[in-house]
């Protein structure tokens, strides 16, 4: 397997995992990030 293919597979996997995580959140993506921005201050 060449490096480019590995890189694409890894990027696709990360994208899928991020999507699954966002779908599992009990609130919207924007509200989730706003919450952390609020806590960060």
What would you note in describing this structure?
The chain is mainly alpha-helical. 83% of the residues lie in helices and 0% in strands. It is built from 2 helices and no strands. The longest helix is centred in the N-terminal third of the chain and has 22 residues, at 3-24. The protein is elongated, with a radius of gyration of 15 Å. The model has no long low-confidence stretch (mean pLDDT 92).
Sum this structure up briefly.
By secondary structure, this protein is mainly α.
| Radius of gyration computed on alpha carbons | 15 Å
SSE succession: HH
Q: Count the strands?
A: 0
- Helical/strand content category: mainly alpha
Which tags fit this structure?
single chain; 41 residues; mainly alpha
Explain the layout of strands and helices.
Blueprint: H1 3-24, H2 29-40
